[in-house]
Specification:
Mean pLDDT: 82
Radius of gyration: 51 Å
Strand content: 25-35%
Number of strands: 32
Helix content: 25-40%
Distance between the termini: 160 Å
Number of helices: 20
């Protein structure tokens, strides 16, 4: 068969194997090709030698190809090869396969030394591409200075690696060595155990992280990531292990940085105390970031105030140190001021908001004074980082982190991390600072609005105690009051306003002022609470939209009369008072509580009880009896028992009140706790006088006689003239405008009280009489003669009273 026949067969769409070179030779079974095909051509381009791999590639045996031009095997001969007199050094063509299709191959040629023959090497193009890519991948992996590729035999001895002999500090193995020759024994044993498992099971290991130490430097650890897979021969028998040792220090460092930033976000800022927040920040950073960490704050920040514009040494004090067990130099003590540092370019960088790094030598050179260096630098410290705490345009202080001993020095990327941490920490500290300022203002307002802690009146001695919510972290609207009333009486108040903070304190102040004003009008307890409830409803209506539900509260109002020894009280949704009798028994007073102050339209009810002299009446707010389980009844029983045990006649009331708060309330209560204790007194019977007044004008002269006789018996002759005039005017008004029954009562204490009571509800009115008026001068005269006077209403009666000072110096 000649070449023309091959060409004709090709132009007819047949391959050489279909009707050309092969003729009637049976078609070979195709099989997978895995190798490099080779053929030798003479100077005319005819095939003179044909290898077994060439037959595997094309399917044509040597006897069908040898002696024939190689072009007969080429399908779609490229234009560059048509008419060529010499074989190109390399190229890519499509060859006919014996089964009729084509194969895309890449070839290279080389002339045989001393001959005109040409050696042609060919392989499927996709095999060549895979090989080139694999080779490129191996070259790239081998060039990575943080990736060591090692081939270990079945004894785990290193037989080949891309590590160089001078790279011991960066790569774990060298040819001819084992891991135990390079790593510490424990680390080598651990890694060889992993490689042995891969060799035995064939299961690969991917990215197994482990910290290892070199034999020549066991004190320092390095982060290593191991990936390994088993090597097998053509029969699938294990021949060794291929291992990739990757320096994962950067990955682990980045992960540590993320973990540290997350921990700062989670742990710093949960407290609204400046020092506590600073300590939380220091605790997060040591020892995770630095071996020692200090947080220094400007002196005004501790009190919630804004710092000065430019911070350096001398105007800051230490707020936190970590770890607490560390030995710090004498110049770094918690709570102590930071020494003044000299003016230096690095200090100026810090003042401009930069995070600065120092080696020990740089820090020593900046400070200048060796004694000051010894005073400030921790033992074995070699690296220090200082970051300003800058938030909302203010530099609040600084974070100082030290690394000591064998710890690695700080790096620039760690400085970036510290800058982020300092920014978050500064915001948390500034939030605490601003809260401290608001809290101090609210606490100051609260203290200004509360009455004196103790009072001493003819009716009772009182002692009040107040504990804000959160152990002082929050201010609410709880209050107590003891208001001295005319005729030696005493009003006792305990109240609780909804909410916390400045708004609650302001509402409390308005309610307390309103109650004091209404108390001076001597309203009955139920009537007074009705008026207060109306006021609260007006305040709620005036509140901004959405805040209406935050205006309200509860209140207990009681009035004790030391003459009658009776106490009248009413409750607006407030817990009942506790009565401790002189014999030591105690019980909660049974009262009928009305609705809280924000709810109007429902009446209040007055309850009256008798009190023996020496009894203790305890008023409180619900923060004192609310326990964690929310059982107010159980808390009231605890309070009652504690009062029975503590209220002894020989113990001061203020001491008792403080002790009760300390025993009954948690360190950080959820609500304010207020306690008011009143130990009652009584006016002796010999210091009072009472007469019934008949509805007869002649009774006026009788009243003057009774008054003269009683004042003479009491030794108050100097008050005879004014008292007779006052009694005459008050009795005259009662006979003229009032109704029976009527009475006159005199009370002696540090003042002389004159009271005239009748059954009329008509309110007397002070006015200035004209010259032609026949009356209207009585109350005007009483107002001129008495120290003070007034009128109070009871059920179906009214009492007009006056008070005159008694000279106690005689």
């Amino acid at each position: 068969m000649d070449t023309a026949n091959v060409k004709n067969a090709c132009s007819a769409g047949a391959s050489p194997g279909a009707g050309g070179i092969s003729g009637s030779v049976p078609r070979l079974r195709p099989r997978a090709f895995d190798g490099l095909a080779a053929a030798v051509l003479d100077q005319r381009g005819a095939v003179v030698r044909w290898t077994r791999t060439a037959q595997d590639l094309t399917g044509f045996p040597a006897e069908e190809v040898c002696g024939r031009p190689v072009q007969e095997l080429v399908a779609d001969l490229p234009d560059a090869l048509r008419g060529a007199t010499e074989m190109p050094e390399s190229g890519r063509v499509r060859l006919w396969h014996q089964r009729g299709d084509t194969i895309d191959v890449t070839f290279r040629t080389t002339r045989v030394e001393g001959s005109a023959e040409v050696l042609v090497l060919a392989a499927p193009t996709h095999h060549v591409a895979d090989h080139e890519q694999g080779a490129a991948l191996l070259r790239a992996l081998s060039a990575q200075n943080r990736i060591t590729i090692a081939l270990h035999d079945t004894d785990l001895t290193t037989v080949q690696t891309n590590a160089t002999p001078d790279a011991l500090g960066g790569r774990p193995v060298q040819p001819g060595t084992r891991l135990c020759d390079v790593l510490c024994a424990e680390d080598a044993e651990s890694l060889e155990g992993v490689l042995r498992q891969v060799l035995e099971t064939g299961a690969p290991v991917v990215r197994r992280n482990q910290r290892v130490s070199w034999r020549h430097d066991p004190a320092r650890q390095h982060a290593l990531s191991l990936s390994a897979f088993r090597l097998e021969d053509a029969r699938g028998r294990p021949t060794g292990v291929a291992a990739l040792y990757i320096d994962s220090a950067d990955h682990l460092r980045a992960r540590r940085h993320l973990d540290l930033a997350r921990e700062v976000a989670e742990r710093v800022g949960g407290s609204l105390d400046v020092v506590r927040t600073a300590q939380d920040l220091a605790d997060v950073l040591a020892p995770a970031f630095g071996d020692l960490t200090a947080v220094d704050l400007a002196h005004p920040v501790f009190d919630g105030e804004e710092p000065v514009k430019r911070l350096g040494g001398g105007d800051m004090g230490n707020a936190a140190l970590a770890p607490a067990t560390a030995v710090w130099p004498a110049g770094i003590k918690r709570g102590d001021p930071i020494p003044l540092l000299p003016d230096h370019p690095t200090v100026r960088r810090f003042r401009n908001g930069e995070t600065v790094l120092f080696s020990l030598d740089d820090y020593t050179a900046m400070v200048g004074d060796p004694q000051l260096v010894e005073y400030l630098v921790p033992r074995d410290a070699h690296s220090v980082m200082v970051a300003p705490l800058h938030a909302r345009g203010l530099t609040l202080g600084a974070i100082t982190a030290w690394r000591c001993g064998r710890s690695a020095p700080f790096t620039e990327d760690e400085a970036d991390l510290m800058k982020q941490i300092a920014s978050r920490g500064a915001l948390a500290i500034d939030n605490a600072r601003r809260y401290t300022r608001e809290h101090r203002a609210a606490a100051g307002l609260q203290q200004l609005l509360l009455p004196p802690a103790t009072t001493d009146t003819p009716a009772a001695e009182t002692a009040g105690a107040y504990l804000p919510a959160g152990g002082g972290a929050e201010i609410s609207g709880d209050w107590y009051d003891a208001i001295a009333l005319p005729s030696l009486r005493l009003a006792l108040v305990a109240g609780d306003v909804v909410g916390h903070g400045m708004r609650a304190s302001a509402t409390m102040g308005r309610l307390r002022a309103a109650i004091q004003t209404l108390a001076d009008l001597e309203l009955e307890p139920d009537e007074l609470l009705t008026r207060i409830a109306e006021l609260v409803q007006r305040l709620a209506a005036e509140a901004p939209p959405g805040d209406h539900d935050f205006v309200g509260g509860t209140c207990l109002y009681a009035v004790y009369d030391p003459v009658t020894r009776r106490c009248a009280m009413a409750s607006a949704g407030h817990p009942p008072p506790v009565l401790v009798r002189p014999d030591g028994t105690a019980e909660a007073v049974r009262i009928s509580p009305g609705p809280p102050l924000a709810i109007g339209g429902l009446p209040y009810e007055t309850t009256t009880i008798d009190l023996e002299p020496g009894s203790v009446l305890a008023l409180y707010t619900d923060g004192l009896v609310e326990q964690h389980d929310g059982d107010i009844g159980q808390g009231l029983r605890h309070l009652t028992d504690a009062l029975a045990a503590s209220c002894r006649p020989d113990r001061a009331l203020d001491e008792t009140g403080q002790a009760l708060l300390a025993d009954l309330v948690d360190q950080a209560p959820r609500d304010d706790a207020t306690l008011l204790l009143a130990r009652t007194r009584a006016v002796p019977a010999e210091d009072t006088a009472l007469w019934d007044i008949p509805a007869d004008p002649a009774a006026v002269s009788k009243a003057r006689e009774w008054t003269t006789r009683q004042l003479t018996a009491w030794g108050l002759e100097e008050l005879l003239f004014t008292t007779e005039l006052i009694v005459s005017e008050l009795v005259t008004n009662a006979i003229r405008y009032g109704r029976l029954p009527m009475d006159l009562r005199l009370i002696r204490h540090d003042v002389l009280v004159c009271e005239v009571t009748d059954s009329s509800s008509t309110q007397p009115r002070l006015r200035r009489a004209r010259t032609t008026d026949e009356g209207g001068r009585g109350l005007f005269l009483v107002a001129q003669l008495a120290e003070r006077w007034g009128c109070r209403h009871g059920q179906n009666r009214k009492t007009i009273w006056s008070e005159q000072l008694i000279d106690c110096s005689r």
